[in-house]
Specification:
Largest sheet: none
Strand content: under 5%
Structural class: mainly alpha
Number of helices: 2
Number of strands: 0
Radius of gyration: 19 Å
Order of helices and strands: HH
Distance between the termini: 43 Å
Length: 63
């Protein structure tokens, strides 16, 4: 995709605060659901799901 770099970008940022993609509660629930999914599929993609859950959990602040 070509972009016109000769013209300046125009626009304004919205005044209202932006919401997080996930709330903290949603993120914790997501980790719990991923851990459950890991247990349901230990031989297939379960280990990868567990690694995903662990990575997300490390990025979250302690409750």
């Amino acid at each position: 995709m070509d972009h016109d770099t000769t013209r300046p970008v125009t626009g304004t940022d919205p005044d209202e605060p932006r919401l997080a993609v996930l709330t903290a509660a949603e993120a914790y629930e997501t980790v719990e659901l991923l851990q459950l999914l890991e247990q349901l599929d230990p031989g297939g993609r379960g280990p990868a799901v567990g690694q995903c859950a662990a990575g997300l959990a490390r990025r979250l602040a302690a409750p």
